[in-house]
Design goal:
Strand 2 (17-20) and strand 3 (25-28) form a beta hairpin. This protein is an alpha+beta fold. The two termini are 39 Å apart. 34% of the residues are buried. The chain has eleven helices and eleven strands.
Length: 314
């Protein structure tokens, strides 16, 4: 297949490139291709088995670093939301129906198109900690060197560990891990889900935090609270205070991770378009840590060392 003859589509934050062919979407990836191609299709197969609309595999040429998948078109919920007349609350109800369906998935193993076994991993505390540390590895080092950097690194790691120890719900559900309106497509078959390659079994609050505190889409606290309470209506077995605690911890750690990732994309990969999202990621962190005393140590450290100037574009 000659990719130069195909229409190239806008990419994402991964190592993948997308092209529109006559039959579907060609996903090309020559770095981390196991997770971005092989595992991605395996997870899509799990989703499809459970009646979640996800792109099915049309063909594969793993040796030449690409797969061809079903084309869902170009209309994401994010694009739909640009129309101010849209009733966002109705869409969020449908999105929460989709999330409920995902959270109920129990399948852990799937055969890949290479006939190997894929197992959905568990989202361990170590994984969450390593991801949070991306803030330290990239954003912190952008502004601090030497003794000051080592001190802040030590303090932040201590705080991150303490926050993760305060997670109360240890029951694991299927988690998409990048569940936001840019990854949800409007298709003839209903809402379709993209970018599932990082799916895990983890905390039920994680995908909700991705949806509500989404750095790509600015929403007011009314909408955020509406989505949160609609989710709880669907999950009446959850303890409100404990769930809220987990939600806020995971949201803060996730957005610190995102700041680190966007900084890495700029510094390492020369992808600068995500830098403009960093100030809003900071706003989301501020929103959550200002409401919960569990973040007092983190709030103090961030206020003292990351002033408004450091929270703007790099």
């Amino acid at each position: 297949m000659n990719l130069n003859r195909l229409k190239k589509l806008s990419g994402d934050a991964s190592f993948r490139y997308f092209y529109r062919s006559r039959n579907g979407i060609v996903v090309f990836c020559d770095k981390n291709k196991k997770s971005n191609l092989l595992d991605y299709d395996a997870i899509n197969k799990i989703l499809i088995k459970k009646k979640v609309v996800a792109p099915s595999l049309i063909s594969q040429n793993y040796k030449k670093n690409y797969i061809e998948i079903e084309d869902f078109g170009d209309l994401t919920v994010f694009e739909k939301f640009k129309n101010n007349k849209i009733n966002k609350k109705n869409y969020y109800k449908k999105i929460l129906d989709l999330l409920s369906k995902i959270n109920k998935i129990k399948i852990k193993k799937q055969k890949t198109f290479l006939k190997t076994n894929f197992k959905v991993p568990n989202y361990t505390s170590k994984m969450l900690l390593d991801e949070s540390n991306l803030f330290i590895d990239w954003y912190l080092q952008k502004y601090f060197k030497g003794k000051k950097k080592r001190f802040l690194e030590k303090e932040l790691k201590k705080i991150f560990k303490k926050l993760l120890k305060n997670i109360s719900n240890h029951k694991k559900v299927f988690v998409h891990r990048d569940f936001h309106v840019s990854n949800i497509m409007i298709t003839k078959k209903g809402l379709g889900l993209l970018d599932s390659q990082d799916a895990v079994y983890g905390n039920i609050a994680y995908d909700l935090a991705s949806l509500i505190d989404d750095v790509r889409l600015k929403t007011n606290t009314k909408i955020k609270d509406f989505i949160f309470h609609e989710f709880l209506k669907k999950n009446k077995n959850l303890d409100y205070e404990k769930f809220k605690n987990d939600f806020e911890i995971l949201s803060v750690l996730r957005n610190l991770k995102i700041i680190g990732i966007f900084t890495r994309l700029s510094m390492r990969d020369k992808k600068n378009k995500y830098l403009k999202l960093i100030p809003y990621a900071w706003k989301l962190i501020e929103l959550r840590i200002s409401r919960n005393p569990i973040f007092n140590d983190l709030n103090y450290l961030l206020i003292k060392n990351f002033d408004k100037k450091k929270r703007k574009l790099i």
